[in-house]
Specification:
The structure is a single chain. The protein is of the alpha/beta class. The chain has one domain: 3-Layer(aba) Sandwich (Rossmann fold). Helix content is 35%, strand content 21%. Strand 1, helix 5 and strand 2 form a beta-alpha-beta unit. It is globular, with a radius of gyration of 17 Å.
Length: 263
Amino acid sequence: MAIQSPPGFDVARLRQLVQNTYASVADDPDGAFHFHRGPAYAARLLGYDAEELATLPARSAARFAGVGNPLAIGPIHPGETVLDHACGAGMDLLLAARRVGRAGRAIGVDMTPAMREVAAASASAAGLEQVDIRAGFFEELPIARESVDVVLSNGVVNLSPDKERVFAEIYRVLVPGGRLYLADVVVQRELRLATRQQPELWAACIAGALPEGQLLELARNCGLTDVRVTHRYDSFADTSARAQVSSDLRVGAVGLFATKPLG
């Protein structure tokens, strides 16, 4: 299964392919990609509020490439600390920053320099001084233990060759009682080994995707509780990514809620 990459898998190549892809999105969000981008897509297929998105810096919203709407999964309260653990150009992060207000913090971590630059510039343009952008990987977050009230995740866990480590890091940084609002790609069945051995198909958000049940099991196994699906999305409708795989995979996305126990 895609919880771990296959033996001999070229992790360095995968990371380079992912960085190249999202650096290209940062450079030209209207280019040809295997996934949807932008605020119109976010409103039409994922349920974001189009009027709220129109108030964000256009540079950030145009480069949005998530697969769901984590902010619809649960509330974000004033004064909380929120982490977007692969924040990209920062659309979700900026929305969260507005919700926590100046008494809170909104931390974005991303491995792609061009995306971090867009997110930081957009936060500055929006006057959101509570936003903090950091370089890093979600398998090794530059975040203190038990310091975050909410972790946001949107379409990125599928890209990790070590998903158990990603969830362990989510658990580590959440305060007791903290919440995970996660949207990610799911497939109907486990992919064949030959497919999972191709970094290019991992970078296309397909080869590293899990069946829904395995994604929930992964969240429970790291110690999170009240794990449940809250939303389902047809986020790959009419994309080239869907055309690359068998129709019985039924590639889509889910919104997932989980919480860290109080004690």
